[in-house]
User: What shape does this take?
Amino acid sequence: MADIQPTARKLEKLRKALYDCSRCGFCRVWNWKGVHWVCPTYPYTEAFDTQYARGRVNMAQAFLDGAAEIDQTFLDHLAQCSLCGSCATHCPVGMPLFEIWHALRSDLVEAGYVHSTHRRTTENVLQHHSVFGARAGRSDATPQEIRKVDVLYFPGCQTTRKVRGIGQATTALLSKLGLNFAMLAEDACCGYPLYDIGQMQAMRENALRTAAQLKEFQPATILTTCAGCYRALKVVYPKQLGIDPGTQVKHIHEFLPDVLPTRLATLARKVTFHDPCVMGRHMGIYDEPRALIASVPGVELVEMYSNREHALCCGAGGGVLSTFDEIAGQVAVERLRQAAAAGAEQLVTSCPTCVVNLKRAVRKAGLNLQVSDMVELLNEAVTVDGN
Assistant: This one.
């Protein structure tokens, strides 16, 4: 065995699991019980072995043992993984594949191998507090008044910059419910995009700053509408970075059941729910958002062919949207076709990145389908005088 590379310490902890691979290939095509493709991005690549989990296991083994040639193709094929977790969920031998991919990305960063797009993402977050970089015409958002609140809504980068309708619907809903809340309007990134690409030192630096921003409001609850922000603040900060966000963190799906009025407006439509990979396979949350959607009178909740732990990724996660835009769009089109095949008029999800990628793919898919965040649907159903 080759000497342990100083740059592969995280992978070394997974060495035994890394060599459990039976090379069965089920992580490529499985077509059983609601799953056409285990790997969502593989069908839209050149179809090399290293563009799905089996070949990427070999890449990790080679890097760990000092036998890998790290070139642009190596970095590209690794970056085409959306970190959706489907390969791990469906692996017959139970390999911790998500942990392996994250360890490999982190070790590569420590060794100085960083994809150019990931380098730009890191610089944007550290310098401008947003994955999208500087705001047009000014370096930052206007500082807001700091006041103690019961609920601090943390919108995240995508909502603040790309899908402001989610933030508007959330603040409108919280206002209707009569809550003492504030929305963090300044640019602030939870850092989950840095986590995805293995930039753990940068994530820690960013997390310390973001946690300090949140604590200024002394909230009883930090509220998110983003699956990535939710996992970052609730799991990654305290358990992997040792950073206390200062109070309880809740996603809107677990916050609303206790505060929604008993009467909601009737919305007659067929709705399907897209399980965000971070919320579903990584956090194990499937029932709560469906229960909220089903609570709206008149809504018929229909399921797509691939749902819950078998759900097809939207294609945007893991940095794929920013690095391989075309692949992300093709995966999204396939997901939209599943929604249309289920008879849905509206696809609802609980992740702004999913909303961004699926919305932009509607025209390409040639479908008459509305894509919304769950909070937008619920805000529509809650009237000011609801009780």
Q: What stands out?
A: The first helix runs from residue 9 to 12. The first strand starts at residue 151 and ends at 154. The mean pLDDT is 93. The CA atoms of residues 253 and 291 lie 9 Å apart.
